[in-house]
Amino acid sequence: MDEALALDYALGILIDPELGYALKRMGTDANFALLVARYRVRLGSGVVESLASKRPCHTPPAKTWDAIIARISSRENE
């Protein structure tokens, strides 16, 4: 689980609640932080901060997801 979470964090693809959990682990678990750092180096993002650290740590409202699903569905029917 740590490997997958660290990789997803390094890629910047986590959303809450996993993003919040990973951020907390980065600050409290040196081994996890090292794992993330290794993935960032392997991915070529060792110097550049991940987009995950720049995003606000909250989940969009349900209506936002509903709108996204509606747009995707309408495009699939074209």
Helix content: 55-70%
For the termini, the CA-CA separation is 39 Å
Could you report the average pLDDT, rounded to the nearest whole number?
81
Computed over alpha carbons, the radius of gyration is 15 Å
Q: Could you walk me through the main structural features you see in this protein, from its secondary elements to its overall organization?
A:
- By secondary structure, this protein is an all-alpha fold.
- It has one domain (2-76).
- It has four helices and no strands.
- The relative contact order is 0.15.
Question: Quick summary of this structure?
Answer:
With 78 residues, the protein is mainly α. The protein contains four helices and no strands.
Features of this protein?
78 residues; mainly alpha
Write the layout of secondary structure elements.
Blueprint: H1 2-11, H2 18-28, H3 30-42, H4 62-76
